[in-house]
């Protein structure tokens, strides 16, 4: 059974439907990539799945329960947490305060301080900077913090919106290694990426979104082998 099942999802900004009839599923333990050019509707899709935007039509089920129309906070408690595009850490707050905020909405009853210590162990760079304002961190460190903050809610499914955007190649590599490590630890991942090749290297399956619709989907291996994908859908030369 799928951990996440999305059917016929339609999301509009005023009269304009940015996402039209999108269907996708994620099985427990998978890494699924969502690819597509700028403006294709990827962020809108993730925000509607996590209850941050209302859907005009469609169904979202998580862990066997319908979650369409539920408030975002409840969806986090059920075990689905989004790392938003652009990281959005609280710049004036310390690393530790950012983590505390991430732990404020929790699924499990486990002690927040223990999860924080797990995060500081997983991200030594954050441990070293725990009393520093988040705004003083590098872009890569802020992305690590955004991921750690999301993990504080103890999700089963982590959704990431362009985690590698704007980061240096070496840092991108570290972020992708981290995603693989998180999956190894049992997390399920739905990742929006413009870094197509790297995403397909770590993903099991992928969906390509074009103009608000699923234009292509398949195993990462098949999509990697297809030369049509970049030319047709991703807006690259
Ligand atoms: N807040 C908004 N108001 C109106 N239109 C929006 C808004 N956010 C995004 N859009 C439009 O919806 C479409 C999909 O955007 P988005 O989901 O952000 O794409 P992606 O994440 O794939 O780059 C784009 O045409 C974009 O201009
Ligand atoms: Mg986006």
Automatic annotation (TrEMBL):
Q: Which SUPFAM superfamilies does this entry report, sorted A to Z?
A: P-loop containing nucleoside triphosphate hydrolases
Q: Origin, by domain of life? A: Bacteria
* Keyword Nucleotide-binding among UniProt keywords: yes
| Pfam families, alphabetized | ABC_tran (PF00005)
- Leader sequence segment: none
Question: What's a Gene Ontology MF term here?
Answer: ATP binding
> Which segments constitute the ABC transporter domain?
4-236
Protein name per Swiss-Prot or TrEMBL: Branched-chain amino acid transport system ATP-binding protein
Keywords associated with the record: Amino-acid transport, ATP-binding, Nucleotide-binding, Transport
Return the InterPro entries for the record: AAA+_ATPase, ABC_transporter-like_ATP-bd, ABC_transporter-like_CS, BCAA_Transport_ATP-bd_LivF, P-loop_NTPase
Name the Gene3D superfamilies for this protein: P-loop containing nucleotide triphosphate hydrolases
- What family, per the record? Belongs to the ABC transporter superfamily.
Q: Does the keyword Transport apply?
A: yes
| Entries under PANTHER family matching the protein | HIGH-AFFINITY BRANCHED-CHAIN AMINO ACID TRANSPORT ATP-BINDING PROTEIN LIVF
